[in-house]
Automatic annotation (TrEMBL):
Classification via InterPro entries: Gal_Oxidase_central_sf, Kelch-typ_b-propeller, Kelch_1
Domain of life: Eukaryota
Repeat recorded as keyword: yes
Leader peptide range in chain numbering: none
Xref: SMART domains: Kelch
Protein name per Swiss-Prot or TrEMBL: Uncharacterized protein
Keywords for this protein: Kelch repeat, Repeat
Amino acid sequence: MVATFECSFLVWKLTGSMNTARFYHTTSTLGNGDVLVAGGTSGAGVLSSVEVYDPSTGLWTTIEPMSTGRFYHTASILTNGNVLVVGGWERDRGISNTAEVYNPSTGFGITTEPMNTARVHHTASILTNGNVLVAGGTADDLIALSSAEVYNPSTGLWTTTNAMSTGRKYHTATILPNGNVLVAGGLSKLGPLNTAEVYNPSTELWTITDYMSHERYDHGASILTNGNVFVVGGTADGRNQLSSAEVYNSFTGLWILAQAMNTARTRHTQVTLGNGNVLVAGGLFGTSSALNSSEVYNPFTGLWTTTNAMSTLRFYHTASILTNGNALVAGGWGIARFALSSAEVYE
C-alpha cells in the first residue's frame, strides 16, 4: 500500500502493481474473490500473460499464460466458475475467432471450439441458462457485424443465432431482469448509433426498442439495482466526448434522460457498487487527454457527485467489483500513452 486519498465518503487506495503494464486487457472476479487479468498489450507487443490479484494481500501473482496473445477480447465468467476468453486481436493472426477457457484449478489449459466468425469490439453476455451470447463487432476493423452466436459450455460448441437488425461495434450489452439482453448504441458502417435492440434467448429473436436520446459509442452501461440500465458518456464523432446519461426502463422499454456527468468522457470504466451507486472513473477527454477524475451517480436522487481523483491518469483500463463491494481499477493507458501497471481500489 503506497498512498491514500480521502474525503468524507470516498477512499482511493493504491494497491500492489501488476507484474506487467497493460491496456486493452480483461479482468474477471473469480469465485474465490481473486481477480484474473488476461492479455492486453503493453504498447510494444501483444500479451499472452495472465496474473491474479489477491484482495486480502493486495498482491499480483503471474500464472501460466494463455495459449495465444490477444487484446480487445472479451472474458466471461461461466456458471461453473471458469472464464471464457473470446476473439480480439491475436499476436499472429490479426482479428481472431479463437476461444479458450481458464479453470481456476488448472489454469488456461482448455482450447475450445472457435467462433463461426472472427470478431473484435464485440460484446459477450452470460445468459440465464449459462450459455454465452456474442454479438456484433468487426472482422476486418472496417465493417460492423450484425451477426451473433451462442456458446454452450456443456458441449463447447458455437451456434449461429439470429442477427441483430443493425451491424454495430463499440456497443454495450446488458442482461435485463427477465433474462433478455439489451444492446445499445455503437458504431455502424454509416456512423454512430442511437438505436437499441433486445435479444430474447427463448425465441432467439431481436426486437428493436426505443431510441436513445444521443448517438454514442465507446460508452458505458450498468445494470441498476431496480433492473434499469444506466448508459453514460461515449462519443458520437471520435473527437468530442459526451457527458450525457440516460436510463433504459426495463419494464416500459423507454429511455429517459438523466442528469449529465460533471465531466464528459469516453473509454472510461463504469461499475455498480455494492450500495447501488454507479462509479465512473477515468477515461479520455478530447483526443489525447487521459482523466483521473471520478464521479458517483446516485440512482435514488438522480444526482452526480464528483469524488476524489484517482492517483493516476488512465483510460482503456478495467474496473472489477470485488466480493466486498469495492472496485479495483487496473492498468490502462496513462500520460504520454504509456501502458500502466498500477492498480487502485475504491472503498
